[in-house]
Specification:
Blueprint lengths: L2 E2 L20 H7 L5 E5 L7 E6 L3 E6 L4 H4 L2 H17 L3 E5 L3 H10 L6 E10 L1 H7 L11 E4 L2 H5 L5 H9 L3 H7 L2 E6 L2 E12 L2 E8 L9 H15 L3 E7 L3 H9 L2 E13 L1
Parallel strand pairs: 4-5, 10-11
Antiparallel strand pairs: 1-2, 2-3, 3-4, 5-12, 6-11, 6-12, 7-8, 8-9, 9-10
């Protein structure tokens, strides 16, 4: 059986983290309870293998990649229990998993071999502050009537379309949790949210970035760039390390990251299909 681990027991999977996983921002953000996610294990008392499902985002695996007791059950578990949990937790209808190395690639491929799936690569980036300072001089200024604003309680509560509340609920247990641990800046016109850059995953001083412009008519006008620039300035002033990742096929996100001073560091293979 594959068990849903109680949140108070997430620390039990820390010994399963190997190599680069020991410093993985997303894994630690879930294990430490900062961001929304669920941990599934082969044994709730002494886990050998675990799947960490980051709510509405991605699934990650740690531990013994050759654990037959876990992987024998995994296909049925994904098709049924995980499908139901994903729909209930965030309305999601897709399975997306990332492999930390070649051994995990083979293990995941075997577990989903009965499915038709798409392969991609998640690109991870490092922030180069000097490059950001040089590039930001070329950013177009905000048009008249627009402003960049820190995401505080008033900004979130006065958002007439409740966009920010909805977005934060995807990553955070509550708005108060975000305000206490996260960071965000948005471009506004009055109280209407045009674009926002915010922390979607936090572990200590390491923050993963999520950015979006919410209406088609506002896209490609530099709003996301300026929201991100304000966010990054805050990071630099407060000793926060920003992180940027995006799928290889998400060319817009990769371009924006490069425009902001992020440089490619490494990539990991991903697998995706609709439940």
């Amino acid at each position: 059986m594959i068990y849903k681990l109680d949140k108070t027991d997430y620390e039990k999977i820390k010994p399963l983290l190997k190599n680069e996983q020991q410093n993985d921002l997303t894994l630690h953000a879930i294990i430490n309870g900062n961001n929304r996610g669920t941990v599934y294990v082969d044994n709730p008392e002494h886990p050998r293998t675990a799947m960490i499902d980051v709510t509405g985002t991605i699934s990650m695996f740690v531990g013994d990649h050759a654990n037959e007791d876990f992987f024998r059950l995994l296909p049925d578990f994904i098709d049924n229990q995980l499908k139901m949990d994903t729909l209930e937790s965030c309305g999601g209808t897709y399975f997306l998993a990332v492999a930390s190395d070649k051994a995990w690639e083979l293990a995941i491929e075997k577990a989903i071999s009965h499915r038709e799936y798409e392969i991609d690569f998640e690109w991870y980036h490092t922030f180069i502050a000097d490059r950001f300072h040089t590039l930001k001089n070329s950013f177009r200024p905000l048009p008249v009537g627009y402003a960049v604003r820190r995401m505080d309680k008033a900004t979130i509560e006065n958002d007439p379309e409740e966009i920010l509340s909805e977005v934060l609920s995807e990553f955070w247990h509550s708005t108060d949790d975000f305000l206490a641990k996260g960071l965000g800046y948005c471009v506004v016109k009055g109280n209407r949210i045009i674009s926002a850059c915010l922390s979607c995953c936090v572990n200590g001083q390491d923050h993963e970035i999520s950015v979006e412009t919410y209406n088609d008519e506002d896209m490609n006008k530099g709003f996301a760039t300026l929201a991100c620039a304000a966010y990054l300035e805050h990071c630099l002033a407060n000793g926060i390390t920003p992180h940027w990742s995006a799928l290889e096929t998400n060319k817009e996100s990769l371009r924006l990251g490069g425009k902001l001073g992020f440089e490619f560091a490494y990539k990991r293979k991903t697998f995706e299909f609709e439940f």
